[in-house]
Amino acid sequence: MKLRFFMSHCRSNSARGKVIDPYVKLLLDAMKHSGCAVNRERHFSCEDCNGNVSGGFDASVSQIVLCQNNICNQAHMNRVVTHELIHAFDHCRAHVDWFTNVRHLACSEVRAANLSGDCSLLNEIFRLHFGLKRHHQTCVRDRAIRSILAVRNISKEVAQKAVDEVFESCFNDHEPFGRIPHNKTYARYAHRDFQNRDRYYSNI
Prior knowledge:
Blueprint: H1 7-20, H2 22-33, H3 40-43, E1 44-47, E2 55-58, E3 63-67, H4 74-93, H5 102-115, H6 121-126, H7 135-151, H8 156-171, H9 184-202
């Protein structure tokens, strides 16, 4: 049964994730480093959402929406925040045409599924999806297609085509992690490396 995150819980738990979750900490540092520092009050909104959507990134106002009625627990909250922060990072660093170029959207959805932990082995076991060859890539592709269909009124065939066209380049774009962070340990190493990289360039 889903645990409803009321407004105060949603805000406090999203803030907690920013302090302790290595995925979120790295992305916040990367956003700040790229000139897009995140303000909790300005850039996050806790709302009730339709259907089973857990969150979204509203590029028109540069705001992350957290669906307080669909987020189950702290781990789910952290994963949603991470997924949407990857979209926010892409919005900051690139000229993403979210609304008319489905290939741009597909690329960011591939990156978010790949880097956020959405397709971690543990999450896939919970979904009873495991044992397939190249399973991680299959999961990333499928979840990217599902995410596109959740926000765009297009056919599954069009979404699949867009994902397939960008998959190789976007799957191999690991910024700002520098690697696929398969779990929190990998994410901590990636955060450490990002901080060291930042210190290195600041001393040149």
